[in-house]
Structures are given as structure tokens and as C-alpha cells.
Amino acid sequence: MTTIPFAHVDAFTSVPFGGSPAVVCRVPEWPAAERMQQIAAEMNVGATAFVRRGPDAFSLRWFSPTVELELCGHGTLAAACVLWENGDAPRHEPIQFDTRGGRLTATRDDRLVAVEFPTLAEQPAPAPDGLLDALGITNAVYVGRNRLDYLVEVNDEAVVRALAPQMSALASIDTRGVIVTSRSADAGTDFVSRFFAPAAGIDEDFATGSAHGCLARFWSGRLGRARMRARQLSRRGAVLHVEVAGDRVRVGGEAVIISDGRLIV
Questions:
Q1: Nearest Cα to 64, choosing from 32, 103, 21?
Q2: Nearest to 21 by CA among 218, 201, 257
Q3: Which of 90, 118, 201, 207 is the most exposed place for a label (fewest CB within 10 A)?
Q4: How far apart are CA 247 and CA 114, in angstroms?
């Protein structure tokens, strides 16, 4: 029998039950990948993160309920908060994570936590057959693709809010996920988005840090600003602060630990 301490964290929100939920499991050694996938399926949130201490950085892996993920922003932010809260890392020092997506850095300024990602720059791309129909979009302003996701820009926040994709059709598109975005109708926010990834077991993600590694660069070019405020228009809602810095992007937000316990397997 093995006992694994875990915490449930709501990321990119200042209040419980908002933002995007993640479960963080702290392990001394990696369980078998099959076991981690079983745990993620049992937890049934957008990301279950497994973190272990390495010689010069923490190692971090993320699983959706159905697959291991290459990059996950809210799972990284949640893991950093748990490590600081439990004294596994000095509270006001950066945390380095080695991941499948490269080395990531988390920093803390009071309650705001920022995760630094490599830029996921997109390039213009034709919409694959069925993509816009599955989204219910008739007039896309722009379609692009990075190595993980498709990006679709529309001309109005109301279109983003009203989306009701056909998830089975969207799951057949060869991509991790699809980002739909527009300028914000709110003067206090620069842009809005939603993120759909049914092929990865997540019909709609509540807050997607890694998608903002693409969105930050995309909107910085259009708006002429390096620092921006974004909202993800999911059912739970999320606020993200992004900054483009060279070939990196910082994605920041608050997080709330709402429970912790032990997993016995």
C-alpha cells in the first residue's frame, strides 16, 4: 500500500470554485505511468499533476483524465502553490520545473503566481475540414496553428461566449485543442478566449495557461502591448495576466487551495 499526499487547487482565480481545478500529487518517485493515468481518471479534473524533487529542480508531469499532457499551465501554477504552501520550496524563491515541455519557472509576487513558458507562436493555416462547422463559426477572422493547437479568431466577444461546439466532431480534428479568441468588449480586459480539447478528454477547459503562451504573442502583435489582461470565458471563469518577454511568455494568476488529503493505493 502506498500513500500519496495530494491537494485540490483552483487556479487562475481568487475565490474557491472558480478558475480551473487541478489536483497536485507529491511523490518521492514516479509511480508507473499507468497508475498515474488511473489516478488522473479517478480525480477527473482537467489536470492531475505529479511532482517530485530532483537534484536541481522539481520534475513535473501532468495527466488529463485520458492522456498525459505535454504542457499545462494551470497544473504548473497549482503545483508551485502547493510546494510553497507545504514548505517544500522557500516561499518567496522561484521554482524550477523539468517537464515534457521543457524547463518552466514559477515565481510569486504576493498572491500572484506567474509561470514562464516558451512562446507557442502560431502560423496562418487553413482550417481543416470540419473544424469551423464543429465550432459553429461561419466567419472566422483568422485561423492559425502552433505545434499543439489550432487558434481561431472571431470578430466579437459575443460569438466566443455563445459557442456550443459539437464535441464529437471536434474530437476528430488532429490537434490537442482549439483556442477561440476575440478582442474583449470590456475596457479593463484586452482579449477573451475559450479552449476546447475533447480529444484529450477535456471538452472545455476552464482556464488554460499553455494556450495563453500562444494568445499572448498573438494579441501582443495586434495590440502593440507586451503586458495584457485576459479572461477565459468558461463556465467557472478565469482571469490571467500575460507578458511577452523575448521568446518567453509569463502567464500569471491567483490560486486557492481548497482541500488536501492522502491518496491510498
A1: 21
A2: 257
A3: 90
A4: 16
- Which single residue is written with the C-alpha cell 495563453? 212
Give the residue ranges of DSSP H helices in the chain.
Answer: 33-43, 73-85, 131-135, 157-162, 167-170, 209-223
Nearest residue to 175 (alpha-carbon basis) of 234, 120, 116: 120
Q: Give me the percent of the chain exceeding a pLDDT of 70.
A: 100
> 123 forms bridges with which residues in the sheet?
145
Per DSSP, 171 falls in state: T
Q: CATH number, domain at 140?
A: 3.10.310.10
How far is the CA of 136 from the CAs of 129, 133, 159, 252, in angstroms? 13, 5, 10, 31
Q: What pTM does this model have?
A: 0.86
Give the pairing type, strands 68-69 and 95-99: unpaired
Name 93's Cβ contacts closer than 8 Å, sequence gap at least 6: none
